[in-house]
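Researcher: Can you fold this with zinc ion in place?
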Amino acid sequence: MDTNDQPSGGRELISKNIDHTVLVPLQISGPSAQRVVIEWRGLMLASPLTLEPVAPSARILISRRWTERGVPFLKLIHPARGTLVDYCVRWVMRSSVGCFALIEMAPGWSDKEPHQTIVGVLDRDTLWTFLPEEFSQILPELRADINRRGECSLAEVEAVFGKMPDHLSPEFRAEDARAFEEREKTIEIFCFSCEKPLKESYAFCPHCGVSRVAPPCPGCSRPVTDARDRRVYYRDENGFYPWHYSWDGRCVNCGFEFAANLQISTGHKLFFEALGGGFQQELDELKRQGRDDLIKERVQNLYSGDSRIEIRGGESVYMAFDDWDYQPIIEVRVKRGVASNMNAPGSGLTKESGIVMTLQEWQAVIDQLQGPLRVLMERKNWSRDTT
Ligand SMILES: [Zn+2]
Ligand SMILES: [Zn+2]
């Protein structure tokens, strides 16, 4: 064959899209308002897809090496940004002035001719980027070498970059698992409030000073959970996670449950209810059980009414497309001994009622009842006899 380009895997070895630059995709590296992200070979990429060149005469470190179906790959680290990109090695060439490699952006980036470049190899872990004029000098040399040798084996590439295990091999998988664990340990988190980076161990944000810890428990004075507020970017999800995002409503230290189950004397009296029902039998039964405390309570409630109130926290969730909105709520349920019988059905005091409101709604009610509407709380129950 008299052309400089040798076929390789069904296409020309040297791409038409070759120049002196090592291109690295622009990745999402920190807090961002961006909603749409694109994943390519495990990288979260900025949208729209953007490539940025590494400066000429720069060292590029290699973080990993492996093969996919016999094709050697290198994972490169952008020297300024620290972002990652996968390149496959198409050719290695040793000359009198050093070692060079023809590298190509990993498949899947675009459907155009793959981007290629020639880099210098300083050692098995370090590449060197060329100036345009250096590149122009090396390219004919590379073509000549490809023509002369016709093939570049995996063994030759491994002689330059070291052993490249298959990405499906147990060896490579084990390395992957180790890397994953390491990433999990050092997972980057950010402040819930100002979104600047911080460490999980910090109780306060060093940037804005906001506390990250859960409020103290009234029972034991320690935080009710060890979880802390954080802004997190995961591979497949990101969000603002408050200390209570997986809290079960109990203090982790002393077990106190933040819910109330109250019984208070209020509401319509039970007197007439008792007349018609088996009140005496109920009292006799309690007497047999020795529950004098309950008898006292039941008799007292005859005249003062009886209400049971449950108060508990919860969360209301609204999901639209891939956006999840969580609102903390407080739910109150009231069960009463006797309902109103003179109001329109459902109004006045009912046997059972419940209300679910947000914290802000509850606060507004509390503010009103302690403020301008306080007088409403100062009224008395009253009675009359019309016989
Ligand atoms: Zn902050
Ligand atoms: Zn506690």
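Model: Folded with zinc ion in place. The radius of gyration is 36 Å.
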